[in-house]
Amino acid sequence: MTDNRKSGLALIAGSLGMIITMAVHPHGAVAAAQVESMARNLTIVHSLALASLMVLFLGTLGLSHRLKSADRFDKIGLVLFAFASIAVMNAAVMDGLVAPNVMRRIVEAGAGAGAGESWRVAFRYNFEVNQGFARLYAITSSIAIIIWSLSIWRNRTLARGLAIYGCMIGGASVIAVTAGLGMDVHGFGAVVLGQAIWFVTAGVLLRREPEKSYAQSRSELAQPA
User: Fold this and answer.
1) Which range (51-55, 67-71, 91-95, 111-115) has the least confidence?
2) Are 168 and 142 in contact (CB under 8 A)?
3) 167 within 8 A of 28, measured Cβ to Cβ
4) What is the helix (H) or strand (E) element at residue 120, kind and residue range?
5) What is the C-alpha separation between 98 and 133, in angstroms, rounded?
6) Tell me: the pLDDT tens digits for 76-85?
7) DSSP state of 156
8) Distance of CA 146 to the CA centre of its chain
9) CB neighbour list of residue 185: distance below 8 Å, 6 or more residues apart
10) Residue 84: which of 56, 64, 65 has the closest Cα?
């Protein structure tokens, strides 16, 4: 399998994983008796998100390589997406690995003041940190898509329709988040879905491109001129 095809598959698989994560993400009020089930589901869902993010990033590495050009837009986009990936990784850890344990502590402490109230404050703080990282991801990853789309347009790679859509969805996401779009399941899910359409389309286009295998290209470079 060629490098482009592998990268395209990673973009598709990672995006689908992110979509599934948002589709099954637990949300809403929860009673004390449901906390353990909610905590377990949060951990499972965010573990899927973290795995999907790693696969998606592998795909963007291949995409960046395919878009390589003198304007260096490919590298700028990759750096921005790497920065965004670190942010959303932190968000997933806070919401999927930290929040479940805090929820359990709240239940253990009971409804009274003292320890219970302290854990509630910790839970609220954890939520705000999660939201901050989610907003950072939404804006930075959207700018990365815009940069990659400009590279596609300038250098006539992949498809110009992809470039137009990338600039539109990236710009709309940045405006919406800066205007106050909530990073709940619906708001963040909308950003993820819009980006996933772009990544999946790029993945399909990459898989259609003829290319020598990475192993082949390395062996050819090693041959004397």
Assistant:
1) 111-115
2) no
3) no
4) helix 115-155
5) 14
6) 999 999 999 9
7) T
8) 15
9) 22, 25, 27
10) 56
Q: Give the span between the Cα atoms of 149 and 112, in whole angstroms.
A: 54
d(CA 85, CA 131): 14
pLDDT in tens, 152-186: 999 888 889 999 999 999 999 999 999 999 998 89
pTM value? 0.86
CA–CA separation, 145 and 174 (whole Å): 11
Residue 18: closest CA among 47, 39, 60, 38: 47
Burial label for 86, CB within 10 Å (0-12, 13-18, 19+), is middle
Q: Are 123 and 102 in contact (CB under 8 A)?
A: yes
pLDDT of res. 225:
43
